[in-house]
User: Fold this.
Amino acid sequence: MLLSSASPTVDEFADATGWKLEPQGACRGDVCVPLPTDAVTAGVVGLEAVADRLGMGLVTDPDSGLTAVGPASPGGRVLVTTEAPELELPDFDGNPFRLNSLRGTKVVLVAWAPY
Assistant:
């Protein structure tokens, strides 16, 4: 998500990320993540504090004035997309098979481990 300011208002942050900053913390649907006290000051979001707490990547380009905020992963254990990473494994005949050859179709991956 791109923000045109490194100091967005609470509403701009919510519009760009889907996370509403409320008294109990950053909320999206039924999930609320507590924020540090310096997360919002006078209606302006402290991006570093909020991005850190939500596990969002944060990059600012001073030349363009744009700030990129990555998807949230509170605790680092949340799937942020339903898109699988690139995967290549041999098929039953030993030929390489790339998962992205099935892009656009629904795929169920079944994994098994003998431990």
